[in-house]
Specification:
Blueprint lengths: L1 H11 L26 H4 L11 E8 L5 E11 L6 E11 L10 E6 L7 E8 L15 H7 L1
Parallel strand pairs: 3-5
Antiparallel strand pairs: 1-2, 1-4, 2-3, 4-5
Length: about 150
């Protein structure tokens, strides 16, 4: 009963497509001879758009080989109250040459997954390090006692 009612409704109501493109007709392309510009000028190269996600953060751990844990801070408004909320997220980033140290400010770019958790690669290190201090942190107590 319901199937016959639906088919009778569909046959009584015909929806016309909004344009000829929606009905499947091909849109005629202008010919090269009809245009006033030369063919070399009108031929535009195909532009490939790739969305690259780049984020910046601080290195918080370099315990694993060729991996750096980067902490990214983000401030966004609350949906209802519009108060600014700070959220922190940690990303595992690929550091192929083990150049990063704890405390460095780095830029990450999204890449093909290197492992289960690493989907970012370190593009550049922004914080210059001071010679003699590998990470900008104070020396350990044992090193300070050995120097004095």
């Amino acid at each position: 009963m319901a199937a016959s009612l639906a088919s009778s409704f569909a046959s009584s109501v015909r929806l016309a497509p909004a344009s000829s493109f929606l009905s499947g007709e091909r849109i005629p392309q202008p010919s090269a001879a009809a245009s006033s510009t030369p063919a070399a000028v009108s031929a535009s190269p195909v532009v490939r758009v790739v969305a690259v996600r780049k984020i910046q953060g601080t290195v918080v751990s370099t315990a694993n080989d060729k991996t750096a844990a980067v902490e990214v801070k983000r401030i966004y408004p609350h949906k209802l109250y519009k108060k600014r909320i700070a959220s922190v997220k940690r990303y595992q980033a690929h550091d192929p040459e083990n150049q990063c140290r704890v405390g460095d400010f780095v830029t990450l770019a999204k890449c093909a997954p290197v492992s289960k958790t690493k989907k970012f690669v370190i593009m550049d290190i922004r914080t210059p390090r001071v010679a003699g201090q590998p990470s900008g942190l104070p020396p350990l107590q044992s090193e300070a006692a050995a120097q004095s």
